[in-house]
Amino acid sequence: MTESPPLFVAEHLHKRFGDQVVLEDINLSFNAGSISGIMGPNGAGKSTCFNVLTGMYRPDGGSVFFDGEDVTGLAPERIVEKGISRSFQIMNLFDEFTALENIMVATNRVRHGLHRPFWDIRADSEISHKAAEVLAMVGLTGLENSLASDMSYGQRRALEIAVSLATEPRIVFLDEPTQGLGADGRANLADLIGTLQEKFTLVIIEHDMQFLFRLANRISVIHWGQIIAEGTPDELKANEWVRTSELGKMTTC
Amino acid sequence: MSDALLKVAGMSKVYTQGLLKKRQTFRLEADFEIEESRIVGVMGPNGSGKTTLFELITGSNQPTGGQVFCNGQNIHKVKYRLRDRMAIHYHQSYQVRHFSKVLPSFMLEKPNSQYPYIHLFDEPQFSTQDGYIGFMLDFFKKLRGEGRLVFLCVHPQEPFHIEIMRSMCEEFLFVNAGKVSRASDYDGLLAVDGVRDYLGKLADI
């Protein structure tokens, strides 16, 4: 796997907001089929990094390559069409739609564009079939016709991930997926993400070290707009402070 | 002959109040030289001039008198947007690039290096709740290993802050009421006037 070139590469990314340099010379690469983690303390620049990687922000310098193609500065919808998708820290679901309909809208968006009336999407059996497949991937089979607003928080998280899978991506970026989840919810989510690894390349931005240590093949630690540490979970866990910190102690799963 | 990594030569910064009748409100003075790569601990009460000192070293604040030489070049004569190739100021989680512009850029020179030799960390947020502190400390050591000069300004509030400073820093600066004192180790720092008052119970951890 190390022989083939990485699926996603970011080179020399710079981003500043006024007087604050939020990213300085960030280099990252993600191999196909891997789970990569980006972690860092709050306010360290990881969300900005994520937004630059997924095309929400244009970098002030540097480039982003997907499958060998320069995708720097492309509009978010173009990025999605290339096969790059992301979830959001704050959930973006249509509450008054069913789980299946939430997926169908996203699937339709990529296949047929924006200008299609909803009654037409709903009647499209091909799309509903595809959407049911996506729901199955995140373990929500049986909840197709539940309203998003009626679902539990953990189910909504899974549905949110399903929405990002509905655009038929090759690489999926998850923004703090454990946000708001308790220990059980985190464990379930970790299981879910583990199963997704077979089909997708995943990048997870996360404050929770424990969660990433369990899942990621490789982790980059961002602070002061730079990558201050990088390595496999075992390499990072070897750090004395990580071992003795409260979060480090919990990394037994 | 190689130049010192940092030379602060007879530098002063005076803040005044009032337009016609100027009254001095704050005066910072510093004169020291650090030859080679090391980690320097910086401590001092709030409002003593630590951040001002850092701003003067990175060229974001203009000194009233004296000069600052980073790797032999006077940083205050370098084009503003290129000063970060010489020294970088990190405030808490961010890098700060703010320059009070005195001269137009065309009157200033280019830096003689593309490699920032001086990194000043102003109150990095150390918490033992998570393990990030370990990565930060390793990062300081990495910069030090790359031949750079690292300043680590911490306002000690807990015993482990002192332990970190003792184990990481190869020398110390104590900034108090605009005066900068230098000590070659922690015991030397404790002997500096005012340090024990500042550290209180933490001094003898």
Characterise the protein shown here.
Helix content of chain A is 38%, strand content 24%. Chain A is built from 11 helices and 10 strands. Chain A has a 6-stranded mixed beta sheet with strand order 6-7-8-3-9-10, sandwiched between helices. A 4-stranded antiparallel beta sheet of chain A has the order 2-1-4-5, covered by helices on one side. The mean pLDDT of chain A is 88. Chain B has a domain at 37-60 and 76-94 and 105-204: Rossmann fold. Helices cover 21% and strands 33% of the residues of chain B. Chain B has helices at 50-57, 132-145, 159-168, 186-191, 195-199; strands spanning 6-17, 23-34, 38-43, 65-70, 73-74, 87-91, 94-96, 118-122, 149-153, 171-176, 179-183. In chain B, a hairpin with a 2-residue loop joins strand 6 (87-91) and strand 7 (94-96). The longest helix of chain B is centred in the C-terminal third of the chain and has 14 residues, at 132-145. The mean pLDDT of chain B is 91. The A-B interface holds A 16, 19-22, 24, 40-45, 207, 209, 221, 223-226, 228-229, 236, 239-248 and B 84, 90, 92-98, 121, 125, 128-139.
What tags apply to this protein structure?
heterodimer, A: 253 residues, alpha/beta, four-stranded antiparallel β-sheet, B: 205 residues
Give the topology:
The complex is a heterodimer of chains A (253) and B (205).
Chain A: E1 8-17, E2 20-30, E3 35-39, H1 46-53, E4 61-66, E5 69-70, H2 76-82, E6 84-86, H3 99-112, H4 118-122, H5 125-137, H6 153-165, E7 171-175, H7 183-196, E8 201-206, H8 209-215, E9 218-223, E10 226-231, H9 233-237, H10 240-244, H11 246-249
Parallel strand pairs in A: 3-8, 3-9, 6-7, 7-8
Antiparallel strand pairs in A: 1-2, 1-4, 4-5, 9-10
Helix pairs in contact in A: 3-5, 3-6
Chain B: E1 6-17, E2 23-34, E3 38-43, H1 50-57, E4 65-70, E5 73-74, E6 87-91, E7 94-96, E8 118-122, H2 132-145, E9 149-153, H3 159-168, E10 171-176, E11 179-183, H4 186-191, H5 195-199
